[in-house]
Amino acid sequence: MKLDPWVEGYIAYLGEVRRLTPATVRDVRCTLKRVSAAMSLLRPDTPLWKARLEDYLKWMEKERGERRSAASMAKDLSYIRGLLDYAWRSGRSDRNVLDGFQLMDGGPKKAPPVLTIEEALRLVESCPRGNRGERRDRAMILVLYGCGLRTAELCGLDVGDLDAERRELTVRHGKGDKARQVPVMEGLWTELMAYLGERGWKRGAFFRTAAKHTRISAKDVGDVVSAAARRAGLEARVTAKTLRHSFATHLMDRGVKLEVISALMGHAGPAETGVYLHALSGRKEAAVARLSGFEKEGKP
Description:
- It is built from 13 helices and 3 strands; from the N terminus they run H-H-H-H-H-H-H-E-E-E-H-H-H-H-H-H.
- The protein is mainly α.
- The chain has a 3-stranded antiparallel beta sheet with strand order 1-2-3.
């Protein structure tokens, strides 16, 4: 079936403004086509953004009956929720009926892959600074790990998103099109200043391709990370997402509060960030162990 022209406009927005990867955009379109076909049987002649929560619940029940996995359904819901949120912000609906709705999956969450601090340092040290292209690639690795950005967020960065006075990056189009500010650590800040100074602080895309000087793509990012991982002897298991996961895990391992990490990551809430608790083996035991001396506090 053909999608509503307005929905096609939303999908174009994801690719052209949000700069999602072509594969993700295709996945969104396929999902919205499948959901539109199913919802047309439940609520004929009703666009997705006008459907009721009860309609979506019936659709989810049908999906469960067809043995769709919880992970697949959660992904579909995130795509639909994004469309409904866009419709609400555009004035096409008075609310997003799926706002805050989450599938309750009682199964154990799979721990995301992360690097140790030693591996992260080895990855950064494997990035040479011999020429302008190498310095650009090194800066990309540093921003991915040092700021926890998603691939699309890195690709969408502009030079104007760097606040020299506050020493922070502004991510203008995060997940759900939400903006956030991320502080930049001192060492990374110095390298970014040198990188942009070498470019003459030209406006526009923060990271550009070496050949055509156009904005980098998700493939460019993947190639840079894979090359750095090979040089560091970390093989193919390292991706841009691995660096983002490592950013959150290493902050948590240093005792940074969950809600702070959630804000830095651009998560919907601390519950989403809780997946990184897997990295804290021994943390709970250590916290309880600290209580063993509480009775001595305040005594001479």
